[in-house]
Amino acid sequence: MIKDDKPKKKDSGSQPVGAKDFLQVFKRGVQFTEELLSENERLRYRVVRLEEENRTLAQQTMVSHAYEELLDQMKVLEEEQATLLDRFKSVEEESQDFKTRYKEIEDENNRLANLYIASHQLNSTLDLKEVVRISFEIIINLVGSMDFALYIADGSKLVPICAEGRPLASLSLIAMGKGSAGRSAEDRVLYVSGDDLTKASVDEPKACVPLVVGGRLLGVFVVFSFLAQKTCITELDRELFKLLGGHAAMSIFAARLSMVTDEKVVHDASSYLRLLNS
Fold first, then answer.
1. pLDDT along the chain (278 residues), means of 10
2. Count of H helices and E strands in the chain?
3. How many degrees, rounded to 5, is the angle at CA 28 between CA 23 and CA 34?
4. What is the dihedral of CA 265, 162, 221, 174, to 10 degrees?
5. Counting CB atoms within 10 angstroms of each CB, which of 137, 142, 205, 237 has the fewest?
């Protein structure tokens, strides 16, 4: 048998050895690549989401921080407002105190001006009746009393010669050195009671103003009560009493020296009564 040495034709439908494995490897590579691309896309999407979340968290953090700062600012402003309100209240109280003090000073100045005018009137007349009338007006308008009397020193006693707010006949003689009026006259010192100023009392007067000239006692103004609106004796009242005692005493003394009855200088209580009732 003769062997045919011609090469045989390859079968077109057949594949070389290893091609199938290569295709499988290629397919797996493609699949792996697609999976990588898919995973990469997924990761990129995740990165975008994370970036958005980070921005949101950052904004929230900033908003929270700003909110806390706003709360702190509000707290500071509230404290400043409270401080300003306290200061305003303090200034308002000080302003009210100044207004009150200004009103008091204004009233004092008016009273002092009135006292100066009254003192000038006292010193401008030698008429005993006019001197007593002006003295009474000072006590009524400046001191604030409608219940008082003028006593004249006559030996060892004080004799009432003129009164306001009660009948003269209802007043008794006062022994020198007895009671508030007697001691005030004897010691030549102003007396002011610490009791209720509006409660009238003849036996316990509210003020006694001795009338003294050169150490010589002429008499005493005895105040039995003050007006209802007067709640206390101020330092100005004391000065008014002293000025009244000095000016009224000098005016009464001058009027007494200038008036002659039956060629005699007025020197006792009866002489005063005759002149005042004439």
1. 47 54 73 79 79 73 66 80 84 83 82 76 82 89 90 93 93 93 93 83 90 91 90 82 86 78 56 68
2. 5, 8
3. 125
4. 90
5. 137
CA–CA dist 130, 252 (Å, integer): 10
Residue 20 belongs to what H/E stretch?
helix 19-123
Report the distance separating Cα 180 and Cα 205, nearest Å.
7
| This model's pTM is above 0.85 | no
Residue 16 to residue 112: CA distance in whole angstroms: 141
Question: Which two structure tokens, joined as six digits, stand for 199?
Answer: 């409660």
Distance CA 194, CA 7 (A): 157
- Alpha carbon dihedral 214, 181, 209, 130, in 10-degree steps, equals -90
- Spatial CB neighbours of 219, under 8 Å, sequence gap ≥ 6: 150, 151, 152, 153, 158, 161, 185, 210, 211, 249, 252
Here the contacts of 112-121 (C-beta below 8 Å, separation 24 or greater) are 112/236, 114/141, 114/142, 115/142, 115/240, 115/243, 115/244, 118/142, 119/243, 119/247
DSSP 173: P
Say which residues have a Cβ less than 8 Å from residue 127's Cβ, sequence separation at least 6: 255
The residue type at 165:
G
Whole-angstrom Cα distance, residue 210 to residue 186? Answer: 9
Which residue, chain included where needed, has tokens 């091609």?
19
